[in-house]
Amino acid sequence: MICIGGSSMNEETVRSEIDLSSLFRILVRKWYVIVASIFVLFIIAFIYAFLMLDNVYEANASIIVLVSNKNQSDDQNYTLSYKLTKTYTELAMSSLVVSRVIEESDIDITDTQFRNSLTVTR
User: Fold this and answer.
1) Is the dihedral of CA 95, 98, 102, 108 positive or negative?
2) How far is it between the farthest Cα atoms of the chain?
3) Rg of the chain's alpha carbons, rounded to an integer?
């Protein structure tokens, strides 16, 4: 065996081992420190989440517009469906719809701010 500083390798290994039972006793003795730390971190997370972050609202919707007129060709039906989709897209951004959404959602922003935050695609 190689000796380091007058001690054998086995003694060096024994000194660096962690006794799990003594570690558990330390955790049980210091339970109040653990609980207090969790409580403080919870309060900090609560303050950050509810007082510092802005509310973000997100909604997704899909509309499929199908026009089926037997007197028209499929191409004409497709063109009409496409135009109706464009109309519905513009309707979603209209002042009537935007103001009603703001009113029913009880959001404290103007119509313009709300409209600028919307993304409507077709």
Assistant:
1) negative
2) 104
3) 34
Residue 122: closest CA among 91, 88, 98, 76: 88
Cα–Cα dist 103/106, whole Å: 5
Q: Per this entry, what is the length of the chain?
A: 122
The contacts of residue 98 (CB under 8 Å, 6+ apart) are 111, 114, 115, 118
Q: Whose CA is closest to 54, among 121, 120, 117, 119? A: 117
pTM (two decimals): 0.42
Whether 81 has a pLDDT exceeding 90, the answer reads: no
